[in-house]
Design a protein that fits this description.
The protein has 105 residues and is mainly α. Helices cover 73% and strands 0% of the residues. The protein has three helices and no strands. Helix 2 runs antiparallel to helix 3. It is elongated.
C-alpha cells in the first residue's frame, strides 16, 4: 500500500494516542469491581486492536489490516450487543401517577 509520508505520520500519532487510551482503559479495567469487568476489558481490546490497526496502516502492511479489521469488528459488535442487552434489561421508571400515592391506605 503506497501512502504519502504525511498520512503515515498521522497514523503514527493516532496510534500513539490510542496507546495512551489503552493504558488508561487497562488501568480502569483493573480497578473495576468483579461483576462489572467485561465492558472495561472490551474497551481495552477496542483500543489495543486500534493501536495495531493504526501501526499497520502507518507501515503500509495490508496483512495487518486484513487480520486486525475483523477482530476490531468482532469487539465493536460485542460491545454493541452488550449495550443493547443492558438497555433492554434496565428497569423502566413508573409513569407519573401510576402506583400507590403517599397517604393512601
Amino acid at each position: 500500500m503506497d501512502l504519502p509520508d504525511w498520512i503515515r505520520w498521522i497514523f503514527f500519532v493516532f496510534a500513539a494516542l490510542q496507546l495512551l487510551f489503552t493504558y488508561r482503559a487497562a488501568h480502569l479495567a483493573r480497578r473495576a469491581e468483579p461483576g462489572r469487568r467485561t465492558d472495561p476489558w472490551l474497551e481495552v481490546a477496542d483500543h489495543a486492536v486500534g493501536v495495531v490497526l493504526s501501526f499497520g496502516l502507518a507501515l503500509g502492511a495490508l496483512s495487518v489490516l486484513v487480520v486486525a479489521a475483523p477482530v476490531l469488528l468482532a469487539v465493536l459488535s460485542w460491545q454493541g450487543i452488550r449495550s443493547a442487552l443492558a438497555r433492554r434489561a434496565a428497569p423502566t421508571a413508573p409513569a407519573p401517577g401510576a402506583g400507590a400515592a403517599p397517604g393512601d391506605g
